[in-house]
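Supplementary material to the annual report.
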Amino acid sequence: KAGVTQTPRYLIKTRGQQVTLSCSPISGHRSVSWYQQTPGQGLQFLFEYFSETQRNKGNFPGRFSGRQFSNSRSEMNVSTLELGDSALYLCASSLAVSTVGYTFGSGTRLTVV
Amino acid sequence: AQTVTQSQPEMSVQEAETVTLSCTYDTSESDYYLFWYKQPPSRQMILVIRQEAYKQQNATENRFSVNFQKAAKSFSLKISDSQLGDAAMYFCAYSAYSGAGSYQLTFGKGTKLSVIP
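Predicted assembly:
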């Protein structure tokens, strides 16, 4: 069974640009969550999508957005990149109710210069 | 808001020995879930063990076990017979219902575990 796949693995962008990250969940998983990991703030919840609808959102500015497609694949977008957006972005998938825990991907390392 | 605290930024253990990683959390919920995740240099977060708050019995997964003290809001991880492959960042995480069917994870800052051959 394929795991959670995130692309690309590494990305370098210039301040002010926008970026789109992709996440393909485990087959059958309908919930996809996104987390930002930085040395200073640790792991912070961005948002969760289920059946193409955002059902939970963390405390991030509106520059961070996401969407989910009918095949459960998800994308997150960051517009007007800032240096502080440099981070590891992790995607996690789970069954409809995620009390059993999430399965994470290997993340996308975004560097903003 | 729920918070998760890991008071040991770094720890080390001799190979084949036992080590315990500490975690405390703060919540007003009665129904919640606790997890330990491992993050090796490959960056992928791997679920190590899971505990349901309503279960008094401590969870065990092979060499990994937890000491869950609900009243004290403590959830420590014990690794027995430590192996070189156990070296990683370990994150304690809390999850409770947050509406609309969602159970978001709140993570601690992590403990970096080194295993000495």
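The two ends of chain A are 37 Å apart (CA to CA).
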